[in-house]
Structure formats: structure tokens, C-alpha cells
Input
Amino acid sequence: MPYQIPWLIFLLPVCSLLIIAFILRPFFNNRPKLGGYVTIAAISTACALSLWVLATVIAAPGHKLDIPDFQWLVIGNLNVHFGLLIDSLTAVMLVVVTIVSLMVQIYSQGYMDGDSGYHRYFAFMSLFTACMLGLIMADNLVLMFLFWEGVGLGSYLLIGFWFHRPSAANAAKKAFIVTRLGDVGFLVAILLLFAQTGTFDTEELHALAIAGTLGGTVLTWVAIGIFSGAAGKSAQFPLHVWLPDAMEGPTPVSALIHAATMVAAGVFLVARFHPLFEHSEVALTTVAIIGGFTAIFAASMGLVMTDIKRVLAYSTISQLGYMMLGLGTGGVAIGIFHLFNHAFFKALLFLGAGSVNHGTGTFDMRQMGGLRKAMPWTYATFLIGSLSLAGIWPLSGFWSKDEIVASALDKPILFYIAMLTVFMTAFYMFRAIFLTFEGEYKGGAPAEHGSHGPNNSYGPHESSKVMVIPLVILSVLSVFSGWLNVTGAFSSFMGHGGEVEAHGFIQGFFGVLSHPVPLISLAVAALGVFLAYAMYSARWISAEVMGRIFKPMYVLFSRKYWMDELYENVIVKKVLINGVFAVLGLFDEKAIDGAINGVANGTVAAGRELRRLQTGQLQFYAMFIVLGLVAITVCYYIFA
Amino acid sequence: MEFSYLTAILFLPIVGVIVLALLPKAELKTVRVVSLIFALASFALSLALFSLFDRSAGAVGQIQFEEKFSWISAINAYYHLGVDGLSLPLVILMTFLGVLAVLVSWKVELKPRQYFIWLLVLETSILGVFCSLDLILFFLFWELELIPMFFLISIWGSGRKEYAANKYLIYTLVGSAMMLAGILSVYFSTSSLNMMEMGGLIIARPFIPITAMFFLLLAGFAIKLPVFPLHTWLPDAHTNAPTAASVILAGSLLKMGGYGMIRLCVSMFPQVAAQYAPLMVILAVIGILYGAAVTLRQKDLKRLIAYSSVSHMGYVLLGIFALSQISLTGAALQMFSHGIITGLLFAMVGLVYDKTHERNLDKLGGLARQMPVIVVVFTIAGLASLGLPGTSGFAAEFITFVGSFSSSIVDHIQLYTVLGVLGIVLTAGYILWMLQRTFYGPPQDKYNGVPDADTVDKICIFSFVAAIMLIGLYPAILTDIIKLGIEPIVRLIGS
Output
């Protein structure tokens, strides 16, 4: 394979961005469909090339390709090269990102139809995808950081796509600033690595960590710094607050953000630098604990949300916690395998939610219900996605979740947390299904937030083919993608060959049910589904009564642990803007500038006073001359 | 005889001034076209300089395009011009901004002839500072700059323009007075005014203690940069100056401070600089964080941008006094980068104000739909200012941080650098908040029908964007030049 191919994968969406920005938008503004076609053409080609790269990497010795790099910047011993690192991790990520992005772009043609910002939408989408592709292929920290921030920019632009809505503008700003807080840690880690090793190259850093040259406290700090960047992008506690708000963007954007681009970036980063984490016990434990905690913490909020996209958003945070837990306890293969499966079913679920919104004009589940008949395709695919997310055998989510839960076995607390999260996940997903698709239709609602141009006068209706086809494709992937590791093939490709016992497909497929852990987790999930059924479909248990019994918890969850209030109102508004910064502002005005003006005024005042001495009367001057002479004479006699 | 590039670049604007003065009828059209021609000629020659500049390894520390004639032989003063890696980018920056400042002023109708004359004089005087290699000549241009800026602010400014102009003049003069004392004491100690002979000069019999000389010189530069707590002239001057003056003030004039620090303070007194570097680095970090914090409190769009300069010039100071090759290169690049980014931000503020006659962030809002071109460019400028990769802001800040963090001259520099890095969060805060307040949210009826950028505006602001992206994507285009000028200075610090 020519080495230009991976570069081409990155450059294709860049080209589509440039074509839209410089040709289509200025000259073909009245033909918006072109923007979508260009983007889809670029990304489908990139997708095909990614599959080629994957095949090549599978065949390559050591699962790695050599790509020549070029020099970007040299100052003294600062030597930055730009190049690509194509190994098994990159190849898998390339396929995930391009497939999900392609599905999202196809779907967007239907979803964004008629929006005045159609060209802008596809330009931003191309940018977003390009940056993500660049990030996963970059072979050094500087290039990685460049695309890392580029991904942040893409999310800012897309979350704030409907900028005329203050909530969208706020959400975009929040996403950027919260993730940037994490990026400070990442940047400091980069600085520390350079000061210690003089290199930014990923593979060189791996080698240094494995050789032990890079170790001890420095390595721990570096790993924590990298993880803080990852926690920002992957919405880990306590930097998770931006993700639920991020659904202010168009729904296909949420699908892309939640599945393959933005949030996957953090998990990818930890996976990419896993050799560094492996050599620091503290860092690895931190990743596992934060991941495990985030998983259950976010799931608890997902239990009570009434907005279908918010349920999915908290589920994303929770699943990202799972991935981090998997990276912290199991290793790259386990964490990335869940990322791989999650990408397909979460993209499916978000696109499904968008389809529901298209049909009803609302995201509020209390105003839906009974959509099963009106939207059969959406219902069927959404159900598959939910089953997969809940970890029901033999769908894809089962396989990767099982691996994570099993790898947490030797850390009992994390294991129980993971189990409890399995229960909550199954519960909230089926709560969503029952509220949305079963029962009576409750009338939808006029567009209030995040909804998009539905024609509601005909009642709920199935979405157009261009939206349904991606759902079907993704639901197929959501069923089968997990089977790739039934034989341990995925793990051994990701470099875990020695640890995984190889076995036949049939044996692995059914044999897994003879182990206790998968059986327990299946039972726990089934219990969650059953409870949701009992409360929201059969109504044996009243949700209102439950809400009253667990009122304190309900309030705690539905107010999101008051973390938004803490961050936005207390820390940012009260303590910083109106507290410390206000004092500094006043200090600047009164003390510093006051002192300067004081000196000036003092000089003027002194001049005004001294001017009185210049009376113009000769007698007055003569008096001072005499006084002076006397003083000099006296001094002379005293000191001489 | 070779063509005297520097003299030509330096005095072409002055030739323009003479032409303008001799014009029989000062019509707006003729005046601005004449100004544009001379600014463009100067810029074109500086680009020629850029392409002819010797970048080979042998050129390290070499002065190029040198011109030297005896001027006042009694005190050894020379008409001595030349550029090296440090000053060439600043010369290009000034001529570039000179052209754009004329375009920005395209619609000035009040006394246009006089206005453009002052603008061109300003350009020459700033160029003179960057090209001079003789201390007296340097000081002459340094002082000359005050006159046009004073009139530009006090006649074509807005708000408290007389107050701002007076404050600017007096504040700068205080610094200049100390600088002159410093220059004189250097002269009386060495009997030389040649700036290139001063590097690492061992002064056998100092006229006054060399530490005092260092601080006398530093005072003038610190006010100009500005260094906390000497910054309060800046928001007043920027806010009340006309757009073009703000563009040049922020874009080029502040850089005289950073340039002087590297060229004189650090080169001439490397040991003193190393001794007091911790103090300066602390002031830099305070400037970065404090400047950003105060910026977050501003309600006036233009004042907000003005205060952001205090924060951004903190990075320059950090890079200079971290005293490593990488950090000094980063600081020099940050000077250039800040010049084009903040220049563009002021140009954008000017455009928004021209169209809406409003600068109060509480009253602006929702303009994105009414100004589709302006919002795109303003956003790019803002993102560059907050250091987004792919723009010059990132390249400069990143190099500065890397250089400062890995410097071995100053104790605890890692801690200070990390504190400086925190500034990028605050910067993101005020930039995004400003963009949201100005452009996002529901469109307001009162701004219906306000025009977007016209052709002249577009040429001007797209040129800025092109420069920002070019340097962001390929910073080596400048750093390969800058490092030639920085390397000899770093050798002095090391010895």
C-alpha cells in the first residue's frame, strides 16, 4: 500500500471542507444538496481506504506500517516532525470513525433538509471528522495536540450550530472551556515529557517508558496529565458537565460526538499512551477508579431524565466510564473493544432519537408513547441498540461489557459498581423504550428545544429512507460487531495475544454462558429490564410512588448532584467573575491606575503650591537670599 | 553601490508624507490612494528583504543589509541601519500593518490629509526603532513615534481622547527619560553607541552600577510592553484611539518594548538579566493571569481586546526572561503573532462599531445573521487569540511554553510556566464570552439592515487571516529567521 493512502484519509474530509467553504458556499449557495454529496463522497472514500488500511495492517508484520514523516519545526533541541503512526489501534479507530461518520452524514441529508445552514453544517462536519482522523493517526504529541484542539473546535462549532438560541451558544462555550481545563493538564504533560526526554514521538516515549528511563514520579504526573486531557474530552467526572448540554447541537452531531469523535478521543488517548500508564500503578488505578465512579455516577442521573437525548447522554458518560475502567484494569484491547461496539450502538440510538424527534417534534418522553406502530423501523432498530447497550447476549454490547466486568473481578469494589451499573443501564434504556414506543401517543409538542422542523400536523410518522437506512446498517453492526472477539481475534490483533486463550467460534459463542460472571451480569440486566417493564409498561409499580419513596435520591439525581450550579453559579459567577476578578478589576482601576493618577495629580498640586513662591516681589526674593546666606554661614561654623 | 533597502523601506512613508503635503487639493480619494501606494511600496521592499535574507548557518548573528555613515562624529554617532533575525520579522510586521492601517482608515473623513500624514510618520518612526543600530538614532525614532500617536489619539479618537492621549504621552515620556539616562550612562562607560558592539560587553569602569543601567533601560521597555503594574495607559489609549492607531499600537508599537528588552537589556547585560529573571518571570505570570482576569470584567468590546494584550504580552515577557533559546524564539514569534492577531481583532472591533455604533457588550448580540462575513473573521481572530492550533497564536504560545518549561536558567520556572498555561483557560473564557455576547443569540431588530464587510474591508481582514494561518501552519517560515538572531544572544547568556 502506498504510504500516501493514510494521509489521503485525512485529506479527503479536509478537501470537502475547502470545497464547501471556497466553492460551494460562495458560488452554489442555492444548491445546498451539493455540500452533502461532496462530504459523503469524501468520507465514503476515506472509509473504503480505512478498510484497506485495516486489511494491510492485519497482514503486516507486527501489525504496523512505516510512514515517512517530514520536519515541521526545528529550534535548538526542539525538533518537531509530523508523521503518521499506523498500527492496530489506529486501524481499528479509522474504521470506526469513518463508518460512523459516513452513516451520520447520510442520515443528516434527511435530518438537516431545508436548514438554512446546510453548507455550513457539512463544512463543520468535514472539519470535525478530519481532525478526529488526524488525531488517531498522529505519530507525536504536538500533532496530536493540534488535532485534539481541532476536535474541540469542531464540537464547539457544531454544538453551537443553531447559535441564535442562547442555550446552544452557552452549551458550545461550556464544552470548549470545560474540555480546555482538561487540556491544561495534557499540555503540561507534554511540556514535562519534553523537558525530561527531549522528544514528542509516541513510539520513542513508549520505548522510554518500557525501558524504565522514563519512570517514577515524573511518569505518574505525565500519565495523570494525559488522563486529565482525556477526562475532559471523554466527559469523566468531574469534567463531565459539558456532555449532557452538548445535545443542543443537531442530533446527528450528538451521534457523532457521542459515538466516534469527540468523546472517543479521550479513551483513544489513554489507549495510545497505555505503555506509560502501565508503568505507573498510581496512574492506572486513578484511571480505573475515575472510570468506575463515572460509570455509576452518570448512570444514576440517567435513571430520572425525561428528555430522551439526556438519557442517552448520561448513558454515554457512563459507558465512557466503563471504557476507562476497562483500560485501567484490563488493557487496551478491552477498553477499545468496548469503544468499538459502543460507537455503533450509540450512534444508532442517537440517530433513532433524532428520528423520533423528526416524527413527533419533541425530545420529551412524557409527550411520546405508542410510537411503535407509527415508526416501526425506528422502533426495531432502537430496540436492537438498547438491547446491545444493556449487554444482552448475543448482541455486541454483551461481549465487550463482559470483558470489562470480568477484568474488574480482582478489584471487588469496582466489580460491584460495574454490576450495579449494568442494572441501571438496562433499567433506564428500557424505561426510555417503554415511555417512547409503548402505550398511548401523548401528542408530541410544538418545537421547543433541539427539535427540528417536523411537520407535526399529520401526527407521528416514520422518517424518510435516507434516515432509516443508516439506522438499519448501524443496527446490523450493533448485533455483530461484538462477535469479532468471540474467538479472541480482536484482542490478539490489539496485542493481547499471549493472554487470551484461543478457541473456536461456536465454543466461544455458547461457552461464555457456562461461566458465572456473564450469567450474573445477564441476570442483573434482565432484572433491570423487568423493573422497567413493571414500572412503565405493565404499571404494576407506580413510578410516582417510587419517586415519592426515594424522593431525596430522585431530587439529587434530577438536579444532577447540583454540579452545574456549583460550577456555573458558585465557582464561575460568584467566586471568580463577581468575586476575585471583580476585586482585581477594582484594584486595577483604583489602586494601580489610581496610584499613577495620584502621582500625576500630586505633581500638579505641588506645582500649584510652589507657584505661590514665585510672587515677583524683589523684597520677597531678597529675604530668601539673606535667609540662605545665614543658613550657609551657620552650617559652615557647625560642621567645619 | 548596492541598493539601500532599509533606507528605502524606512523613508518611503516619509516621501509619501511630502507628496501628501504638496498635493494642491487634498481630496479623500487621492490622499488615501497616495498613502496606500507608499505603504505598499514599503511592504513590497520588506518582502524583498525577506526573500533575500541569508538563512544559512553562517548567517548566525550576522547583521544584514547594513548601512553605516558617520553622523555626529563628535560623539561617535552613526546613521547605522541593519536587520538580523530578531528585527527582520518586526520590520515586515510593521510594513504589513502599515498597508492594512491605511485600508482600515479608508473611510476616515475628518481632515484626511493630516490623518494619513500622521499615520505614515508613525510607520517610519516605528520602523526606525527596529532598523537602528546606533543608540542615539534608536532613541530618536523611539521618541519620534510619540508625536503622531499623540495627535492620532487626541484628534481622531473617541471618548476621553484628550485624557488618553495625555496619559499615553506622559507615561511613555517618563519611561523614555529613564531610558535616555540609561543610554547616556552606557555611552559614558563605553564611549560607543553601536548597539551591535554591546553584546556581552565587559564594562571595565561603569559610569554607574551596571544593574542600575539595566533597570534604567528596562523601565522604558517595560512601560511600552507593558509589564504589570505599568500597564494602565494601555487600555485607555487603545480604547480611545481610532481603529488604525489601535491596530498599530497593539500590533507593532508594543513590540518595541519586547524588542528593546531582548536587543539591549538581555544582550548587553546577560548576567544582570539572569540575576533578575525570577522577578521578571513572576511579573510575567502575574501579567498573564491578572490581565486575563481583568479582561473578563470588561463590558466594552474594544477595552476587552485592549486588556487582553496585557495578558498576551505576559507570554512575551515570560519567554524573554526564561532566557533559553527556545523560549526567546517563542517570545519573538509571539510578538509577531500577537501583532497580526490583535491587529485583526481591533480592525474587527472597528468594523462592528462602524456598522452598529455600539461597543457595549450588554447591548450587542445576535449579529451573526446580519454580518455573516464579519462573524467568521472575528471568530477566526478570536480562536487565534485563544491559541487554537493551526493559527499563529498556538505556534507562538506553544514554543514559548516549551522553551520556558525546559529552561535551566531560572529556578522554579516549571511552576511559573504551569501557572502561565492556566491563562489559556481564562483566555478561552473571555474570547468565547465576547463572541457569544456580540454575535450569538437571537438577532435584534435594531441591527436589521446593518451592512456586512465591503470589498475594502474584506481585502484587509482576509490578508490578516491569511497571515495568521500561514504562520500557524508553518511557523518555521519565521522561526528559521528568528533563531539566527536569537542564537548569539543565548551564547552570551550561557557564557
About this structure: The radius of gyration of chain B is 21 Å. Chain B touches chain A through 53 residues (CB under 8 Å). The beta strands of chain B are 64-72, 77-83.
